[in-house]
Design a protein that fits this description.
The protein is of the alpha/beta class. The chain has 21 helices and twelve strands. The chain is 38% helix and 13% strand. The strands form two sheets. It has an eight-stranded mixed sheet.
Length: 559
């Protein structure tokens, strides 16, 4: 148990101390507070539990473990909920427009509850693509001693399947490779229980980034959702937040420029999701750390891709868990001079101290490659510029797809039209599929193009077509794909001016994305272009579209 001092109750004392706080104490007694509890630091536990998705269906139990840990260490834990949505369920529908929006709602709700209730410290337990960065943004804004706990990864389905196997089965059926019965078999068995999607998709990418950032306990990012290790991780986080309170260690002490550089390098080594770029930019904005797309370029030049993980690789996160998770990888990277070892973490120790006694991976494993045999010698997260994207776009190119693609534009307004064109055979080899008006403002909400990219792979066109969009991609997307094209079409970016048959070249080595149309022709097209009317004029999507910044700035709503 931590020795409790008055300076650990900076916020709760304002809520429950003195005669003026009698009404507050009366209400808190109804939810279980005792006289002794009013003398303890209050620890808010933000739970993203919901039965809307397997990623989060178990998190209520994990939040209870964190509660036990905080109480055992001398605090008074208070669990509250925030929302979550499911990208896997909503992908390909209008509902997916709410996905990125939910990151802001989650951050706002954590800031709102903790700011109002006077919590002295925070723990957040998250397990899906947007609720993890949402939790970090909320904690960063408040800047009270905080720890993030990852809900853990799902185990593989029958036949080494996962959610991407299901999406790609739809394309394989369209290509005549799978019968409806075979598709149904994959549907029935690919998702065996709780946990986040099983490859190095966005959830596992962000969990790894947050651990590398120093905001979760060592090992938190690489544990099965249903495991004693994960339950212990939650209990220890509950205890450790009291230690952070005692030492007055806050998110802004941990989430420094050097820590963000560590996080970027780790997600590159792991072949992580392009969404990591969007979310790290937003998280840095929340703590006023300057971070830009160009930083991903510079760090990517000297950081190799080492992990053979899905979607572009072979293995799943549960298999990385079995050989030790990301800690041995980080130790290798630290020893190679790729990580800053002097940064502070939620353990109260530096990253170098945390990694000092970490064991090497077992001999014979081939999930994490050695530095002298990388999957790619530099980053797979390629930041592209050119006359098609003057302020930057983000590609995920491991090299397996090739490093250059030149083709002719096949233009679609929106994801649904593109998916239909892919499945009905309209898209053919040599096409560059252009999906526009899916940006943060234009969508609104910047939907993930998982259904179209999965259909491309399922149809066997993965090496024969490219896909570009002002929307974004699921961490499960692979192939020659470029997202986050900025300025977006709704703002009159060049992607709004592309016409069917235009030549488009994407070059990962020169980091260029170019439209083979003269400036004069583009000027003529621009003169004819008119901005479309907003699709939503009321409610959360309308508010989001009015407030959101460019994807090149993290698509934040408080800039």
């Amino acid at each position: 148990m931590t020795d409790i001092t008055d300076n650990m109750r900076t916020y709760s004392s304002q809520v429950v101390d003195g005669i003026e706080a009698t009404p507050a104490r009366a209400m808190l007694r109804a939810v279980g507070f005792t006289d002794e509890d009013f003398k303890k630091p209050q620890i808010g536990i933000a739970s993203t539990w919901a039965n809307v998705t397997p990623c989060n269906m178990h998190i209520d139990k994990l939040a209870r473990e964190a509660e036990k840990g905080a109480n055992a260490a001398g605090g008074k834990a208070v669990i509250f909920n925030t929302i979550t949505v499911s990208d896997g369920i909503a992908n390909g529908t209008e509902g997916m427009k709410y996905s990125l929006v939910s990151r802001e709602v989650i951050a706002d709700s954590i800031e709102t509850v903790a700011g109002c209730e006077g919590f002295d410290g925070l723990i957040a337990v998250g397990g899906c693509d947007k609720n993890m960065p949402g939790c970090l943004i909320g904690m960063a804004r408040l800047n009270r001693p905080s720890i993030f706990v990852y809900g853990g990864t799902i185990r593989p389905g029958a036949g080494h399947t996962d959610i991407i196997s299901v999406f790609e089965a739809v394309g394989r059926h369209a290509a005549g490779e799978l019968s409806l019965v075979q598709v149904k078999q994959i549907e029935d068995t690919a998702i065996p229980g709780p946990g986040s999607c099983g490859g190095m998709y966005t959830a596992n990418t962000m969990a790894s980034a947050i651990e590398a950032l120093g905001m979760s306990l060592p090992g938190s990012s690489a544990q099965d959702a249903i495991s004693t290790d994960k339950a212990s991780d939650c209990f220890r986080a509950g205890q450790q937040v009291l230690e952070l309170l005692a030492r007055d260690i806050k998110p802004r002490d941990i989430m420094t420029r050097k820590a963000f550089e560590n996080a970027i390098r780790v997600i590159i080594a792991l072949a992580g999701s392009t969404n990591g770029v969007l979310h790290l930019l937003a998280m840095a904005h929340a703590v006023e750390v300057k971070l830009a797309l160009d930083d991903f370029i510079e760090l990517g030049k000297t950081t190799p891709v080492l992990a053979d993980l899905r979607p572009s690789g072979k293995y799943m996160m549960s298999e990385l868990v079995a050989i030790g998770g990301i800690q041995p990888l980080m130790k290798r990277m630290l020893d190679a001079g790729l990580l800053h070892g002097d940064v502070l973490t939620v353990t109260g120790k530096t990253l170098a101290e945390n990694l000092a006694d970490v064991a090497e991976y077992p001999a014979g494993q081939d999930i994490i490659r050695p530095f002298d045999n990388p999957i790619k010698k530099d980053s797979h997260l390629v930041i592209l510029h050119g006359n098609l994207s003057p302020t930057g776009a983000v590609a995920k190119i491991t090299g397996k797809e090739g490093l250059r693609f030149a083709g002719r534009a096949r233009v679609y307004h929106g994801e649904e039209a593109a998916l239909a064109g892919i499945l009905n055979g309209e898209v053919v080899a040599g096409d560059v599929i252009v999906i526009r008006y899916e940006g943060p403002k234009g969508g609104p909400g910047m939907r993930e193009m998982l259904s179209p990219t999965s259909a491309v792979m399922g149809k066997g066109l993965g090496k024969d077509v490219a896909l570009i969009t002002d929307g974004r991609f699921s961490g499960g997307s692979h192939g020659f794909v470029v997202g986050h094209i900025t300025p977006e079409a709704f703002d009159g970016g060049p992607i709004a001016l592309v016409e069917n048959g235009d030549a488009i070249t994407i070059d990962a080595e020169t980091r260029e994305i170019s439209l083979g149309v003269s400036d004069a022709v583009l000027a003529e097209r621009r003169a004819r272009w008119t901005q479309p009317k907003p699709l939503y004029t009321r409610g959360v999507l309308a508010k989001y579209a009015k407030l959101v910044s460019s994807a090149s700035e993290g698509a934040v709503t408080d800039k």
